[in-house]
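Section 3.1: Structural characterization of target chains.
Under the original work plan, the team committed to producing a structural model for every single-chain target entering the pipeline before any wet-lab resources were allocated. The record below documents one such target. The sequence was received from the expression subgroup and is listed exactly as submitted; it comprises 134 residues.
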Amino acid sequence: MSDLEESQRQKKIGSVLQHDLVDVLQSAATQGGLRGVLISVTKVKVTVDLSVAKVYLSIFPNDKGKELLQGIKSNTSLIRHELAQRTKNQLRRMPHLEFFIDDSLEYIDQIEKSLKGEENPIKDPSILDKRKKS
């Protein structure tokens, strides 16, 4: 089996974490007074040695993403503890959590806009800056 291919164990742990993380993060956001914010866990990738779980989040509305990610990162130990309580019957060791914004939906949205011709560089030259190669 190649390194790129996830083992069944990695996938199982990833899906267990993904399921519980949604609850933990969403309730934390609600308790933190953030109404109308949706946090979804798009994927959880667990390293081969099962020591690290990379958690990819999709946050709506988008403009709250960076701010929320900072909050989540600063509360990683609390989140990890809460997860450990929930998964103690399924997982022996709780992996370290690393959080990232999953911008693939935003990226797909940009592609769709471009394909529909909604992004016209002639009308709005500022979009060209984003496409320049450095």
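The helical segments are 8-31, 65-74, 76-87, 104-116, 126-131.
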